Amino acid sequence: MSQLDVRQKLEILADAAKYDASCASSGTVKRDSSKGKGIGSTEGMGICHAYAPDGRCISLLKILLTNSCIFDCHYCINRKSSNVRRARFTAREVVDLTLAFYRRNYIEGLFLSSGIIRSSDYTMEQIVEVARALREDHDFRGYIHLKTIPDADPELIHQAGRHADRVSINVELPTERGLKRLAPEKSGARIEGAMAGLRAAIADTADARGRYRHAPDFAPAGQSTQMIVGADAATDGDIVMRANSLYDRFALRRVYYSAFSPIPDASAVLPLSRPPLMREHRLYQSDWLIRFYGFAAEEVVAAADGETGMLPLDIDPKLAWALKHRDRFPVDINRAPRAMLLRIPGLGVKAVDAILTARRWRRLGLADLARLTSSVARLRPFLIAEDWRPVALSDAADIRPLVAPRRRQQLELFGA
C-alpha cells in the first residue's frame, strides 16, 4: 500500500465504496460560504447521486478510508480473507482530496466509510479527524456523511455527530440469526446500542437548540442505516417489519436496501446468485408506503405472498394490497378522505393533494385524473368519478391482467 500514489488509492477505494447505498444527503441544515467566510456549501448545484434539502441532486466524494479490515464478514468483498488489492488513505489525504475536488466543482460534500484497521477506536479516530480538519482547519461548510463504527467508544461517535451532517450505522442484515451466521464478529445488540445513543444525542441537541439560540449542531440530517437484501434467508416481510421497528425505535431518517452482490472467492454459506434488483426496488416502494402513504407495516406485509413472505415483483406493493382488498374499492374521488385516496393504485401524494384542492370547486371526472397521472386506465377499477363507475370491472373475478404493467427487464447496476 505504501507504493500506491493518491490517484491509485482513489481508484481502489472509490470503487470499494460503491456497495454502500446510504449516501443521500437530504434533511441537513443550510450552510454556505457565499458571504466570503469558509469554503463549501450544502446548497449548490452538483453532479453525483445524493440529494440536497430542497431535493436537487448534488455531488459527494464517496470513498473508503481503507478497504483493509480485521473482520471477516462473509458477504463483504473487503473482508479479511478476501483476495482484493488493498489501499489506505491518511486523514490528510482525504482532506486534501475533498478540498481539491470541491475547488474544481466536482463535488459538494464527502461520504466517508471505512474497513476496520487495528481496532474500532483507532479507525473511528481517523474518520473523525477527517471531519474535524475539514470543519475546524478549513472551515468547510459542505455536506459530510460519516459511516460510524458501533464498537467504537461512544465519545468518538459523539464527536462524529458534532462535525457531520449525517451519521449512519449499518445494521447489516435484517435478522439477528443472519448476522450471527454471516458476520459472527458483529453484535446486533451493540449496533442497536450505538443507534440508541445517537438518537438520544440528536434529541438532546434539538431540545438544547429550542432553548439556546447558539447551541451546537449534532448530526442535523439525522441518522440512517442500511440492510443487505438477499444474503440470508430473510423474507420481504421480515425486512419490512425490521425496518419499521428501526424507524420507530431510533427515529431514523432513512433505511437503505442494498441487494446482495456475489463476490470473488465467496463463502459456501452465501447464495450463488444475486437477488433480482426489482426486489430492492419493491422494498423501497414499501418503505414509501409506510412513511408517506399512511400504511401500517402489517398492511404492507399482507401484500406479500402468504407462503413465501415475498412481495410480488411484477406489480408494486400498493397495487398488490389493493388486489387483496377488493372490498375497499372503488373509492369516490369526489368524497373520500385523503387517507383512502392515497390507497388508490397509481395516485401519488401530489396527485391526491391536487384532487383535494380541485374538488373544493367542482366535481372531478376521468379527464381531470388523466392530467394528474400517467395512466388513468390503471385507476379505473379502483375509483368512482363524476362520469365513471366501474360496474363491470368491480364484478370481474380477476382484474390483475388489466392493471399490471407490462413486464420490463431490470438492468444490472454493476453488470459486465
From TrEMBL:
Q: Check the record and name the SUPFAM superfamilies matching this protein.
A: Radical SAM enzymes, RuvA domain 2-like
Q: Which InterPro entries match?
A: Aldolase_TIM, DNA_rSAM_put, Elp3/MiaA/NifB-like_rSAM, Endo/Exo/Phosphatase_dom_1, rSAM, rSAM_sf, RuvA_2-like
List, alphabetically, the Pfam families matched: Radical_SAM
- Cofactor(s) annotated in UniProt: [4Fe-4S] cluster
Which Gene3D superfamilies is this protein grouped with? Aldolase class I
Elp3/MiaA/NifB-like radical SAM core domain: which residues?
Answer: 59-286
UniProt keyword annotation of Cell inner membrane present: no
* Keyword entries, A-Z: Iron, Iron-sulfur, Metal-binding, S-adenosyl-L-methionine
Tell me what this protein is called.
Answer: DNA modification/repair radical SAM protein
Please give the organism: Sphingomonas colocasiae
